[in-house]
Amino acid sequence: MSGLIGGVAETVAMAEESQVAARGEHTELRRNLGFRDLVVYGLLFIAPMAPVGVFGTLDAKSGGAVALVYVVATIAMAFTAFSYAQMVRVAPQAGSVFTYARKGLGEGPGFVAGWMAMLDYLLIPAVAYLFAGIAMEALVPEVDRWVWTGIAVVVTTLLNLWGVRAAARVGFAVLAMEIVVLLVFVVSAVVVLVRDGARRDWWSPLTGDGAFSLAAVVGAVSVAVLSYLGFDAIASFAEEVTGGSAKVARAVLFCLALAGVLFVAQSWLVALLEPVSSADLAADPGKQGSAFYDAVETSVGGWLHDLVALSKAIGAAFAALAGQAAGGRLLFAMGRDRRLPHVLARTDGGVPRVALLVAATVTMIAAVWAARRDDGLDHLVSVVDVGALTAFVLLHASVVGWFAVRRAEGPPHVLKHVVAPVLGAAILIAVIVEASAAAQVVGVVWLGVGLVVLAVQGASRTPAGR
């Protein structure tokens, strides 16, 4: 009986594929990415100098223990990266956490994971585009930031429509530029510290420049996590990689480890250069956004301030490019599985152009809207990480579901398939609890909308299944 059902299902699937081919629809992606390309996309999305924009906030929240915040955040994200590495081997397909949760937990949780991740993939590029607009406005104040933001969206969207390989080549050049600027900052900071000494105690980036508070450090981690969001986007390109899923898993782990080292190093150095105490930054939130730039300009010089600002403008735009590409592939995967309109699954020459255009449109609206408001950045930053963190919790649950509950690949490895994902989920839940009230409200509302969509889809599919 099971063989007959399986045969019927296979026949139906082949018929559907034939109908798709007959209509001239293409829902396959082209395999032309290597390990270097994956690393480029991951580091572009993360941005090697991501702490520039949030250093002041983290310093104020953690009582000066900003490097420790990044150490804890790296460890927290390492559990998530490890779960990604486990599941990408199980389901080497576009869609990332949406695909993995469907595999390990079922259709409903899979949709919820994809829906929550969508909030991240559509809004993080908007934040990055806005960062680019703000940086360019600082360099060319005659042009409003919303104009620069719109230009960045158009240019990077055209690159994504050109194709993932072409975008990766341009992205590699941009990433090289960011690395060079980071090295210039590190060398300049070390020279100043050796010559003039540190403004704070040398170990204060780990212990704080006042009374140490573990709760304050954990609270700051909920903001620091924003710097890491993007390494997971590598998994979205699983169908476009040559050489198998193991290459994707290695790229995910490599990007997270490298980003952690870069973040700890630069936050430690700038904390030692910071002339203002963490208590003063906490008392004057207006200084937090420019704290990194101010410390660099005061200690090293205005030339490095301008160089970092220019690098941040270009780097942020291409971080958005990588995010937009990942968001397009999430929409593509959900459209292909008919969880979103099926037109999103159309490809042209192996490029999911329809999904990319939809992602770009949503991102453009959010980014330009925020760029035209004084409080636009605060609104975007406060909500982008909740969707991703919720999706990550479901990712960890999918590892337990696939390996330990279903035992789909034999007896589970208790440490890898139970202990690690449970610890990872517990850490993320703690971070969500420490997130801002506004972020939690937006997350709950978005989840509620997703559950309504899921219920409507379930109701519409029930008659067909009878």
How would you characterize this protein structure?
The protein is mostly helical. Helix content is 77%, strand content 0%. It contains 19 helices and no strands. The longest helix is centred in the last third of the chain and has 35 residues. It is globular, with a radius of gyration of 22 Å. The protein starts with a helix and ends with a helix. The N terminus and C terminus are likely disordered.
Quick rundown:
By secondary structure, this protein is an all-alpha fold. It has helices at 2-22, 35-46, 51-62, 66-90, 97-105, 107-139, 145-162, 164-196, 204-207, 214-228, 245-273, 278-283, 291-299, 302-336, 353-371, 376-381, 384-405, 414-434, 437-465.
Features:
single chain, 466 residues, mainly alpha, globular, disordered C terminus
- Beta percentage is under 5%
Most strands sheet: none
DSSP strand count: 0
Tally of DSSP helical segments? 19
CA(first)-CA(last) distance: 18 Å
Question: What would the principal axes of the Cα set say about the shape?
Answer: globular
Structural classification: mainly alpha
| Helix content range | over 70%
Oligomer: single chain
Order of helices and strands: HHHHHHHHHHHHHHHHHHH
Task: Give the C-alpha Rg.
Answer: 22 Å
Mean pLDDT comes to: 79
Point out poorly predicted stretches. Answer: 1-25, 462-466
Secondary structure layout plus pairing:
Elements: H1 2-22, H2 35-46, H3 51-62, H4 66-90, H5 97-105, H6 107-139, H7 145-162, H8 164-196, H9 204-207, H10 214-228, H11 245-273, H12 278-283, H13 291-299, H14 302-336, H15 353-371, H16 376-381, H17 384-405, H18 414-434, H19 437-465
